[in-house]
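User: Okay, second chain of the day. Same drill as before: sequence in, structure tokens out.
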Amino acid sequence: MRAIVSVIGNDRVGIIADVCCLLASMNINILDINQTVMKNFFTMTMLVDTALCAEPYEAVHDALNRKGEEMGLSIRIQREDIFHAMHRI
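Assistant: Same drill. Structure tokens below.
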């Protein structure tokens, strides 16, 4: 399964590293990544492959939420099929 991960918050050193390390620890592969900083606001969107992840989707979702709270960021994951369905309307 592929999913979209979005990260939004105040820019600081290490955001990409911390999020990518968490994904790697769950065996989630990053297929594509796009990030930018706009007036000190960090935004990043990643397309990830969760096929080799042993954790259920809800556990990945919860881990990313906890990491976001710990870092003062909004980190969300959404299944690719749901993302496409929502943006077709």
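The mean pLDDT is 93.

User: Thanks, on to the next one.
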